Fold each of these.
Amino acid sequence: MLHHFFATYGLGEKVAHLHADNCSGQNKNRYMMSYLMWRVLTNQHNEITISFLPVGHTKFFPDAGFGMIKRKFRKTKVGSLYDIVDVINQSATMNHCQLVGDQQGKVIVPSYDWVDFFEEHIIRSGAVLVRRTSEVSDERKIRLIRNSSWQPTSSSLPDVIKPAGLPLTRQWYLFDKIREFCPAEAQDLVCPMPRKRPSS
C-alpha cells in the first residue's frame, strides 16, 4: 500500500518523512527498510526518514480517522464490501476508501512480492542509518545490499502476487450457511452459488 500511495498521491517530493507505530509485522522490519532504501537507490527519493512513535504513545492523526469510521459503522447497515466503502467515504472528509480488489475478484491495487525481491537483492550487505535514541551520537550505519553489482531501476518491480480466491469448500460454506443472513440485494455479491461442487 505504501508503494501505491507514493505512486498515486506523491507530488514529486525528493525528501519524505514517515511516522509509524512499532508494529514489526507491518512497519518496523527489514523489508520496510529495504523498500525505502530501494526508493532512494532508484532516485525516486533523495532521502527518506522513518520515525517510530514511543511505546505507549502511538496514538496519532490516522487514529482519529479510524475512530470516525467505527462510529459510522455502528450506525449503518452493512451487507457487502461496497457498503463498507460507503461507510468509510461518508465517515469524514479526511477518509477515503481504497479498495485493493472488488467482490468479482478484479485486482485494483496489485500486491508485489517484495519479500523474495529483497531477499535476492538487498538484505544485509546501500546502507541505512539507525538510532536507538534521538541523539545523533547514537547513529550507526547498516549495510544492506547483497550484490554490489545490482543496479536497480524504478521499473524493476517484483513479481505481482495473484490472489488465489476462495477455495470451493469456503464458497459452499458461505452459500449454504451465511447467505440467508445477508440482505437480499447483497446475497449474489457476497455468497453467490458456486459453479461446481468440491471434489470429494
Amino acid sequence: YVVLQPGEALFLAAHVPHAYLSGDCVECMACSDNVVRAGCTPKFKDVPTLCAMLDYTGAAPAQQLLSFAESREAGFSRRRYNPPVPELDVERVVAEQAEFTLPARTGPSLVLVSEGRVALRANDDAPAQSPAAAAANSACGPLAAGSVVFVAAGTALHATESVPGTTLFRASCEVSVA
C-alpha cells in the first residue's frame, strides 16, 4: 500500500486496481467508460470481468508518484502535477490574497474548491457557471468546500472574496490549437 502525504499525487494506469482506506483525495480520471467494481460498494459488481482485465504488473510506490512544478503567482501559489498522459492536466492552487486571477487554459476545466471559500468570475465579467448558477443565471460565489464549477476553454478566472489558504484543484483537458 501507499501512504501519500498532503500535496503528493500518484498516477495509476488503466486496468490498475485501487482503493482508498482512509483520508481525502482528489481523483481525476481520463476519459473512460469502463469503471468495473469488485466490492466495497452497493453498486453493480462484475468480478469476472474485473479479474480478466486487470494489469497484475507491480510497481514500487516511488515509481508511481507524480512529479510536479511549483510556482508563486500574483495572489496564489500553484502546484502543477505532471501525469504521463497528454489528455489530463491537474493543478492545486492555494490563495494567498483575497483576489487573484487564474490564467486561461486552451481546453475546458473543472475547478473544485477543497478548502475555504471563493467567488469566481470569468475574465469577461460573465460569471463562471456551476449547473445551479447557470440555471439561475447568477454569479458563482461565494463557493465553499465541495463546490465544483465548469470553466470553458480560453477563460481566465478572477477570484474574489477568497480566504487565504483557500485551496482549489483545476483539472483541464489541454487542446492543441492548429
